[in-house]
Prior knowledge:
2 copies of one chain form a homodimer.
Chain A: E1 4-11, H1 22-37, E2 46-50, H2 54-58, H3 63-71, E3 79-83, H4 88-101, E4 107-114, H5 121-128, H6 144-159, H7 163-177, H8 191-195, E5 199-201, E6 204-205, E7 215-223, H9 224-230, E8 235-244, H10 259-272, E9 281-283, H11 289-298, H12 307-312, H13 329-333, H14 340-352, E10 365-372, E11 377-385
Parallel strand pairs in A: 2-3, 2-4, 9-10
Antiparallel strand pairs in A: 1-7, 1-8, 4-7, 5-6, 8-11, 10-11
Helix pairs in contact in A: 1-3, 4-14, 7-11
Amino acid sequence: xxxxxxxxxxxxxxxxxxxxxxxxxxxxxxxxxxxxxxxxxxxxxxxxxxxxxxxxxxxxxxxxxxxxxxxxxxxxxxxxxxxxxxxxxxxxxxxxxxxxxxxxxxxxxxxxxxxxxxxxxxxxxxxxxxxxxxxxxxxxxxxxxxxxxxxxxxxxxxxxxxxxxxxxxxxxxxxxxxxxxxxxxxxxxxxxxxxxxxxxxxxxxxxxxxxxxxxxxxxxxxxxxxxxxxxxxxxxxxxxxxxxxxxxxxxxxxxxxxxxxxxxxxxxxxxxxxxxxxxxxxxxxxxxxxxxxxxxxxxxxxxxxxxxxxxxxxxxxxxxxxxxxxxxxxxxxxxxxxxxxxxxxxxxxxxxxxxxxxxxxxxxxxxxxxxxxxxxxxxxxxxxxx
Amino acid sequence: xxxxxxxxxxxxxxxxxxxxxxxxxxxxxxxxxxxxxxxxxxxxxxxxxxxxxxxxxxxxxxxxxxxxxxxxxxxxxxxxxxxxxxxxxxxxxxxxxxxxxxxxxxxxxxxxxxxxxxxxxxxxxxxxxxxxxxxxxxxxxxxxxxxxxxxxxxxxxxxxxxxxxxxxxxxxxxxxxxxxxxxxxxxxxxxxxxxxxxxxxxxxxxxxxxxxxxxxxxxxxxxxxxxxxxxxxxxxxxxxxxxxxxxxxxxxxxxxxxxxxxxxxxxxxxxxxxxxxxxxxxxxxxxxxxxxxxxxxxxxxxxxxxxxxxxxxxxxxxxxxxxxxxxxxxxxxxxxxxxxxxxxxxxxxxxxxxxxxxxxxxxxxxxxxxxxxxxxxxxxxxxxxx
Lengths: 386, 386
């Protein structure tokens, strides 16, 4: 397998992007990435687009050829939409990676996009829940705030994780996001703000939940041996893994881990020859505050049950031993579902290029973790400065 | 690139499969293919599932890990849904092909599934139209019967194609389908039946249109050098191409061809080193009767404008020079959108194994053509008996 590098990144800001359609957002992010890579768009050999709920929310499917046409790709270029709930964009990334690594293509464009803000909230909530098995747990009315509330309660019961520890994740990520011009929210919040915010699903309050957002992100991938032709600061993909979990909570048999995350982390570290302690910066799928804690343990950064304490102790702050979500994460930057995986990549690449607005000094190796549905699918990528 | 063979095929019948969910249908087809291949399911290294409108119609997304779990795949196996409207299943097939050909995997399971019959017809029609660009032509209210009616009228105007020629496609495909136990319809119809059937969109009558159907189909792919370990009658994939067209009719600039089909056919013949006259049997995307005529020309089987005459002259009958849609095609076998591409593969593999209910004697090489949306995406596969 050949080395694969990211030579261009592009994104919209995340938020309520009124008047911008999903096609426009995706086109913008792709053009931004193509411009950043300095390639001619005619050099692109394949295009993968991650998207989750566009069909359900705005009744627009078959987005990949639509956006491919809008960007002006050649008609020989296969344009493929991939879907894995919140992991959709990183599944797109993985396909670009795999097909370059295997020598099928030299240059691939990957993107993710989601338009959420134009839909009524009831439709959104129902659509977001559509990644749960609708024949079993979906029928009970379980949605994702409920899923993560159950996970949080069990984690609190087993390990003494506290409401303050959960809230501290939101406080940290909002402070980080306040520095990020791409973030939906730019306000600093306090523990008190979080704990006193509106109850959503006990024990989760409003600020424990990521906001509905619009957005699109993209990247241009290239065989590493060609990367220096285009870029002075390519970032190499040294780990790329996609695993499968469960489409319900009850099948998992426990409520303190996502098995797909544990497995994806293990395989990504094996693939890269790295260990958790080698990672300088992490973007984790913090769709809800307990998710960041659970995921940081499942990825091997902290012992099971210690993730909440790590947050409270400042270990995951930008100046801590392992900065987690210096972008602001899903909680503050926003979570346009089908775009998020590449939004995380955008932030990590900027860190590894030394050009982030919340720069972690000396960051050489970054990891992104992107989980879909009830952990039905999980992707982990490890990126390295070349 | 290594050779890739199909060592197992599986399918439900196509039709109104009351009481069978999309998960159940996909699971059945996959298990059928795994059984046919004689592999242990633990040997499967990746799973691709094509699906189009499950999110919009029955609010079930993230189907690939859901079905992967239902089949009992290992959790290391990436389970990915791909979407390209009516081409979804053949995009799944192409990904299995590509990743085995490139040496990433040895054994891959691919499937397609669609549950349509449980949705109200207005919702179905709107959802089927969601592959058209909703910011432009979709806003005009154009749906697929309208698209193909416009194509038909222009073809009639330019080349003198007749209502009888269109109708003859339906007559032929119903006769073929009457022999196929997997077909939704088993009735023989006459030219008079077609021409006197209810008007849908002038000039298309009811029998010019494929029926809404449920169904799922699957295949097990394997590196060709390993195929004989499992199968006495593997079928090699010698051409596999996915191209991009237009997400609207107006951008095409003409209404007598689908550019993505012309390009995909050309590239698939180049890839396989074969010519149109080498093909013994074809399954074409006959979603409407004019589509079979237009596609058969675009693929190079007949000169532009002569496709209608070829049907009338019996050239495309099972005993003709080039049998087209001996399965009954989408018009009679049915068109569960996200499954169809692999349904075509199922039929051709049975032909190349000499075990089809409507067997074409001596069939050695078959071609499948699967087009998505307004020709926004097109896939062509060429299969060869080993």
